Amino acid sequence: MILPIVAYGDPVLRKVAKEIDADYPNLKELIANMKETMYNASGVGLAAPQIGKDIRLFVIDASPFAEDDDLSEEDRAALKDFNRVFINAEIIEEEGEEWAFNEGCLSIPDVRQDVYRQPKVTFTYQDEDFNTHTETLEGLAARVFQHEYDHIEGILFTDKLSSLKKRLIKKKLDNISKGKIRADYRMRFPNLKKGK
């Protein structure tokens, strides 16, 4: 089932999400719905807060990036099979010199900005069967992970922009929170009054 994606301005996007265990109700169905929602919106990642749930869960399928000829051979190879579910992820370490990449977010349609992140991230997480893994990602795969991880920490990519860039996009962000935006997928807007 395709779920509405929560728009910028909704308080759930600012919460630090809670850990879950294997008893979380209808988890397999929720994961399937999140993947369907992500694919419907042509996204490469979707975190539970983006569908209104403040839990430490996100899905990534970055394989569409693997066809981008502008990427390095290493990035394309790393992204080709990067399709996973992350539960209760915790970053252990981020390393390297920050680099810029143009990011967007399904909760913030039509806003894209260069965001600086470190190129290497080591983290633990549980898969959908609650097996625990420790892993290190680099390059674009690390960035996609970091972007989705930020969502479960209550952080949006716009928080990482300079104060000047934040001022330049403020009106756009205000319009998104008021529902004054058209997206090619279902959205839920926090500041829409009933009956309007």
TrEMBL record:
Keyword Cytoplasm: no
Coiled coil: none
Cofactor detail note: Binds 1 Fe(2+) ion.
InterPro entries: Peptide_deformylase, Peptide_deformylase_sf
Cofactor: Fe(2+)
First-level EC class: hydrolase
Enzyme Commission number(s) of this protein: 3.5.1.88
Gene Ontology MF annotations: peptide deformylase activity
Active site: 148
Keyword annotations from UniProtKB, A to Z: Hydrolase, Iron, Metal-binding, Protein biosynthesis
Chain positions recorded as Fe cation binding sites: 105, 147, 151
Enzymatic reactions: N-terminal N-formyl-L-methionyl-[peptide] + H2O = N-terminal L-methionyl-[peptide] + formate
Role: Removes the formyl group from the N-terminal Met of newly synthesized proteins. Requires at least a dipeptide for an efficient rate of reaction. N-terminal L-methionine is a prerequisite for activity but the enzyme has broad specificity at other positions.
NCBIfam families: pept_deformyl, PRK00150.1-3
Homology family: Belongs to the polypeptide deformylase family.
PANTHER family assigned to the protein according to its UniProt record, in alphabetical order: PEPTIDE DEFORMYLASE
Name the UniProt record assigns to this protein: Peptide deformylase
Lineage: Bacteria, Pseudomonadati, Bacteroidota, Flavobacteriia, Flavobacteriales
Gene behind the chain: def
